[in-house]
Amino acid sequence: MTFHGKPDGETTPPDPFAEGVLVGLLIGEGHFGGDGRQAQVTLRMHTRREQLFTWLTTTFPGGKLYGPYRHGGRSYYQWMARGEFLRERLIPLLARHLTAELDPEAHARFRAMRARYGV
Question: Rounded to two decimals, what is the model's pTM?
Answer without folding.
Answer: 0.86
